[in-house]
Structures are given as C-alpha cells and as structure tokens.
Amino acid sequence: MAYIGRQPIVGNFQVCDAISVVNGQAAYTLQVGSVNVIPESANHMLVSLNGILQKPGSSFTISSSTMTFASNLATGDVIDFVLLLGDVLDIGTPSDATVTTAKLADGAVTNAKLASGSFGNITSTGTLTNFTSTGIDDNATSTAITISSDERVTIDADDEKALVVHHNDGSVVRIGMNNNATNSNEIGFDSTDFIVKPGGTERLRLNTSGHAKAVAFTNRSTILNTINPTVDDTNTFEIANGYIHLFRDDTATIKNIIFGKNGSEVGSISTNGSSTSYNTSSDYRLKENVIEIANATTRLKLLKPSRFNFIADADTTVDGFLAHEVSNIVPEAVSGTHNGVKTWTKYDELPEGVSIGDNKLDDDGNTIPEYQGIDQSKLVPLLVKTIQELEARITELENA
Question: Which of 41, 186, 258, 372 has its CA 20 to 30 A from that of 23?
C-alpha cells in the first residue's frame, strides 16, 4: 500500500524516555532510547500528567517529535509517561504461527532477517543466489548431493571415504569435466585401472601393479603407441623395476632416445634392424678452431691402464683406468673432480641452517662422495693418432 508522506508505524507500541526536567515551558522533545521519535498523531498517544490522562488535541498537540501542552507547565508538575501507540488500526504483533506465506512480500526475507543456525529442507523452483554455508550435509544415507537432468554432479559420502565422486558408465567410475558439449575430459577408474581421457579419448591407463599401458600420445606428429608390461609386443616400451625396454617392429634406423641441452640435440641412441649406436654430436658445422692432434704418443705413454676390481664386485677383475689419472691427459673423458663430495645446490630444498655450496652430510655427519666417471670412448682419438704416429715412424725406418 502506498502512502503520501511518511509510512505509518504499524503496531509499534513504545514508551518514551522519562522527561524528568519540567522547567516551566509547554514544549518537550520525545525520545526512545535517546533518539527522537515521531508519533503518528496526538490521537496515537497516551500522556499522563500529574497522574491524569491528557486529552489529545486540546490538552496537548504534537508536531514532528515535539509535544506541546496547552499551557506552560509549572515547577513540580510531573509528566508520568508518554506512550506511543503506533497505527492502532492494525494489529501490533501477530499471534504465534499466524503469518502465512501469502502474507510475505516477494524478496522481503533478506540475509539480515535470517539468524545464523540450522535450516531444514530448502526447495526452490527458481535460482538460489548468494547462498553460503559452513557445510552442506544430508543426514540421510541415500543422497549427499545430486544435480541431474543431465547436467549432473553426484557426490556420495560412501562408508568411511571422505569424498567419492560417481559418474557411472557400466563399470566405470570417473570424474567428468566439460568445457563445452563436445569436449569431455575425464579421470577415474575402470574396474581396477586408473584412466585419463582428455577430450574423451583414453590416453593413459595405470593398473594396480604400477604399470602404465594402453596409451596413445601425439607430439610433433610422432605417435608413441603404447606403454605396456608385455615386452613381446611390438612398438612398445616398458618401464619397470631397474630397467627400460624399447621395442620397434621395423628395420629403419631411428633415434630411440635423444639427448638435448638448451634446446639443441647433443647426442642420441639409435637402432636399425640389427645394432645400436651411441652417438655424440660431431658435425663439422658445430665446431671451430680445428687443429691436428700433436704428440699423441707422448701423451698416450702417460696413461696408466690398470687391472682392478670394484669394491661392490670383489670377484670380478677388469681392465681400465683410474679417473683422476686420466683427467690431466684427456680431461674431456673424465667427469667430476678428484676426491669430490656432494654439496647443496640451488635445486635442492635446503634444510634450516644450510646454504648453497655447503657439503652434504650423511646420518653420521660424514661428507658424501661425489664419484668421478670416465667415458673411455673419448680416448679413441688419442689412440688413433698414436697409431698414425707409430705407423709413420715404422714407415720411415723401413725406408731408411
């Protein structure tokens, strides 16, 4: 209902603050809780002066929040009380359980009118907006959250599991994620296997034995068909405890493994129908300052080939070199430093009190060795040049 001017107060009975100072004047300000109040009219008020109710309109009038008596009050007069009746034509406070849904205006119940606490079932045929909760729960055993037809999300609290997401398709239980009607991405379980299906096509499957299988990756137009624990399959590779198996079903020469640095290839392992090659970069276009090896024989004589066994394999004696004895003669053949130890690097998660470059220590407080290695193939150029020098000397002696 619309009103001209101020909307009347409906049924809001209020007792005004006591007016304790009567100072010989007729006008007094009405307040409730120290805040000025405006009665509907003099007829909506009960005023008691010196124990006698005053007649509205003749004994007193009202203008805004100012009540004015017909004459100035004298010292000793007592305003006993002023009671504001609000709109006495309407019921002030409805009786319990008498307000029906039809009596509530649409949108009239706001967050400010909802006390925090528990709510019963909420059913809506429209849009539920600005809804927040410290938790969504359902004490029933059948459903936790279900949204169907067919934009469906089903989250079931199953037994003691914290969260179970069901998207049932036969024996498949998975989580589906869609960015449009035709592109579905899924992860989940098929029987006992874990599966990944980007774009709706299976790309990865892990079984309970820890093997990955039935995979189709596409990258730079090169298709790697499967990762499969059955090593007899063609075009497969298997990664298992302590080994990697690579298999192809053709005889073409191909780089099975490629090694790179800063975006450029620096080596590879390739196979053909019958052999394997271990390749390091050697194209002339990659090199400069090319000079012939000199004094190869002299350098070769400095090498100290030895026979020894490794501590971890005491029963096997082999021929070889001690890495540090080779490092000054053919340094490119040796990796690591003599008596090197492991240190903390910027790639490590540093323990408290440790800085980059500090030595790593074992549980007994001892340094941890960083062992040297040797690539004996790097000795081949020196060997070849030595043979050439010896051949030249032999030829010279034969022609003398």
Answer: 41
pLDDT for the residue numbered 13 = 81
Q: Which residues contact 323 (CB under 8 A, 6 or more apart)?
A: 334, 335, 336, 338, 372, 373, 374
| Predicted confidence band of residue 118 (pLDDT cuts 50, 70, 90) | low
The two beta strands, 212-213 and 217-219, are: unpaired
Read off the amino acid at residue 195.
Answer: I
Which parts of 161-208 are beta strand (E)? 164-165, 168-169, 172-178, 184-190, 193-197, 204-206
Residue 24 region by backbone torsions, left for phi larger than 0, else alpha for psi between -120 and 50, else beta: left
Q: Tell me the backbone φ, ψ of residue 43, rounded to 5 degrees.
A: -75, -10
Amino acid identity of residue 96, one-letter, is D
What DSSP element (H or E) covers 293?
Answer: none
The Cα–Cα gap between 158 and 170 comes to 19
For the stretch 233-245, pLDDT in tens is: 566 676 667 777 7
Alpha-carbon gap, residue 111 to 131, rounded angstroms: 10
Please state, in angstroms and rounded to a whole number, the distance separating the CA atoms of residues 233 and 247: 8
d(C-alpha 274, C-alpha 369), whole Å:
39
Looking at the chain, list the stretches that DSSP marks H as alpha helix, in order from N- to C-terminal side: 296-302, 323-327, 380-399
pLDDT 10s digits, 256-288: 899 999 989 999 999 998 999 999 999 999 999
Structure tokens at 65: 């929040």
Handedness of CA 318, 323, 325, 327 (dihedral sign): positive
Q: Are strands 236-240 and 226-227 parallel, antiparallel or unpaired?
A: parallel
Tokens of 207: 């079984």
Contact 272, 256 (CB under 8 A): no
Mean per-residue pLDDT for 331-339?
Answer: 96
For residues 142-167, average pLDDT: 51
Whole-angstrom CA distances from 311 to 314, 317, 375, 380 are 5, 11, 20, 27
Closest CA to 184 of 151, 139, 212: 151
Give the gyration radius of the chain's Cα atoms.
47
Question: Concatenated DSSP letters for 135-174?
Answer: -----SSS-SEEE-TTS-EEEE--TT-S-EE--EETTEEE
